Amino acid sequence: MSRRKSPLVSALFKLTRAGVRQSARIGQAAARQGVKAGGRLAEQAGRALSAVATPAEAPGAVAGGRWHEGRWGLGPLAMRRWRLFIPVGATARKPLPLLVLLHGCAQDSAAFATTTHAAAVARAKGFAVLLPEQGQDANPQRCWNWFGSEARVGLETQTLMAIIDHVVQAYPRVGGPLFALGLSAGGAMALTLALRHPERFCAVGSHSGAAPASARTPLQAGQAMRGRRSPDADAIALRLAGRPLPPLLLIHGDLDPVVSFDNAEAAAGLWLELLPEGVPVKETAGELRRGSRRSVARRDWKRGRHLAVRLLRVHGMGHAWSGGAAGQAFSDPSGPDALRLAWQFFETVMEQAPPAPV
Fold first, then answer.
1. Can you tell me the distance from the alpha carbon of 295 to that of 314, in angstroms, rounded to the nearest whole number?
2. C-alpha span between 230 and 309 (Å, rounded)
3. How far apart are CA 298 and CA 312, in angstroms?
4. Which of 79, 246, 291, 329 is most buried by a 10 A CB count?
């Protein structure tokens, strides 16, 4: 007599099967960038085995702060590695804000820490940064599973929230306001966390990410990435049941060939549609340029004096982290520093409203 599989085990198997198909397009782009950055057959083989386009050394000793690492999740079948950087000076009585930084496909936490200059920016700006790491058992190309069935997406979000809760409990010094930001699939996942746990986050952001809640199947995910699908605002409003969403930051290159810029506009439209009624929304626009770096078109939407959505369109940039480290896949050193731009937005949000509970 056969035994019936538990819902958790069934969801994990579905995650792996669907991940192979969903990751194909981004994985091909990762392979192309990996070949450009490398050159040796052995290095390329190592990347293929690890599913990391341009591996980086594990973060080591850093002046002015310390890296911690561990594993946590929802049990033996849903464990994830994580890395945490805490600058010096943090105390449990005055805990630092915590930024959850979610890598993209074909990356891991070490590569993403290198790409984003996470430790340097966190130390300079006074926040802690947590980098969960997707495992190949959950997605062969290390993409966060931002789309699919309720069980599939629910498992991913619950796993990430479990890691956040564990880290905050283990390190009370990082129990301040909570933020989430991610690249590509990580960006879509960051917004998915906010849609499912809006009360937990002070603000969230997506860099070059697909519009959240815009796909259930691999085919639909590909369509969404090309800008041919939009989120179902009515279904999301029903799930939110009146809970307000945290402020949203979107950063996206206008020449992105992997995830169309239309996704940033769709995500902004979703957030604006779900704003509570009664307070008029005012839109402003401007242009940012820092030295010889790429210029950025900025659009802000405010409810009264409070920022609700900021959209940064980086001119001439493809599917890459703006201002990222040289030599890393999905990294454009010629763009303005995305992590500093994001933290500027998050600081503004903290100044304008009381932080959300963690």
1. 6
2. 17
3. 5
4. 329
Which residues, including other chains, have CB under 8 Å from residue 341's CB and lie 6 or more apart?
251, 296, 312, 322
How wide is the angle at C-alpha 15 spanned by C-alphas 271 and 154, nearest 5°?
Answer: 40
Longest dimension (CA), the chain: 70
H/E stretch holding 163 reads helix 150-170
CB neighbourhood size of 259 (10 A): 31
The pLDDT value recorded for residue 279 is: 86
Among 1-15, 192-206, 233-247, whose mean pLDDT is lowest?
1-15
Tell me the one-letter amino acid at 11: A
The first and second tokens of residue 144, run together, are 């966060």
Nearest one of 225, 310, 309 to 273, comparing CA atoms: 309
Distance of CA 5 to the CA centre of its chain: 31
Round to the nearest angstrom and report the end-to-end CA distance of the chain. 46
What kind of fold does domain 7-352 have according to CATH? Rossmann fold (3.40.50)
pLDDT for 7 beyond 80: no
User: What is the C-alpha separation between 188 and 166, in angstroms, rounded?
Assistant: 23
List of residues 6+ apart from 264 with CB closer than 8 A: 206, 211, 250, 251, 252, 311, 313
Which candidate, 199, 160, 185, places its Cα nearest to that of 22?
185
Type of residue found at 105: C
Residue type, 284: T
For tokens 């080591």, what's the residue? Answer: 60
Q: Specify which residues 183 forms β-bridges with.
A: 207
User: Tell me: the pLDDT tens digits for 269-324?
Assistant: 999 999 998 889 999 999 999 889 999 999 999 999 999 999 999 999 999 999 99
Whole-structure pTM value: 0.88
Place of tokens 């199947």: 217
pLDDT at 97 over 90: yes
Convert 25-58 to b/e letters by CB count within 10 Å (16 or more is b): bbbebbbebbeebbeeeeebeebeeebbbbbbee
SS3 state at 14: helix
Give the model confidence (pLDDT) of 342-357 as tens digits: 999 999 999 986 544 4
Could you give the dihedral angle defined by the CA atoms of residues 39, 43, 48 and 49, in that order, rounded to the nearest 10 degrees?
A: 170
